[in-house]
Design brief:
This protein is of the alpha+beta class and about 180 residues long. The chain contains three helices and seven strands. It has a single domain (about 10-170), classed as Alpha-Beta Complex (Peptide Deformylase).
Length: about 180
């Protein structure tokens, strides 16, 4: 396993639509293991393949649930097949450090995907897990959470986003960075 560098806003790979995975093999299993290790090292709760420079439809998440046991998922070729309800909550992103904004998302989603061994998964997610999955599937489609902000709010953040694109990283040592999607 290896910690891979997380790509930062302005890197063109973040705007690429990730390609479907066709081979469920050892390199895929290594990628998934690396992504979990990277996500933990960066103190995140979700990570998409293109965030580590691999434009393949792979994502990992590990989110807390009610009983305190984290739900850990590795999804290959995920798609959201249904959505219902609405929730608004704060999101941040490992690829956009230091920026946190309220984003409107579906409260519940139905997910169809494969696990890293190729088995088909079909399940419903709700609440925070649904939010994280929507955020990560957006990444796989080349969409960043700031794209979901109003034009006025994006304009307000323009200087900070431009600074990130130039490689000027903010100090993310605050506790707010914990659990970033």
């Amino acid at each position: 396993m290896a910690i891979r560098p997380v790509r930062i806003y302005g890197d063109p790979v973040l705007r690429q639509r990730a390609q479907p995975v066709e081979a469920f093999d050892e390199p895929l299993l290594r990628l998934v293991a690396d992504m979990f290790e990277t996500m933990h090292a960066y103190r995140g709760v979700g990570l998409a393949g293109n965030q580590v420079g691999v434009p393949q439809r792979v994502l990992v998440v590990e989110v807390p649930v009610e009983d305190g046991v984290p739900q850990r998922l590795a999804l290959v070729n995920p798609s959201l097949t249904a959505a219902s309800g609405q929730q608004v909550g704060e999101e941040g992103c490992l690829s956009i450090p230091g920026i946190y904004e309220d984003i409107k998302r579906a409260l519940r989603v139905r997910v169809r995907a494969h696990d890293p061994q190729g088995a088909t998964l079909d399940f419903e997610a709700e609440g925070y897990l649904a939010r994280v999955l929507q955020h990560e599937v957006d990444h796989l489609d080349g969409i960043l959470f700031v794209d979901r902000l109003s034009p006025l709010r994006r304009q307000f953040l323009r200087r900070a986003l431009d600074a990130l694109a130039r490689g000027e990283l903010p100090d993310t040592s605050s506790s707010r960075a914990e659990g970033t999607i």
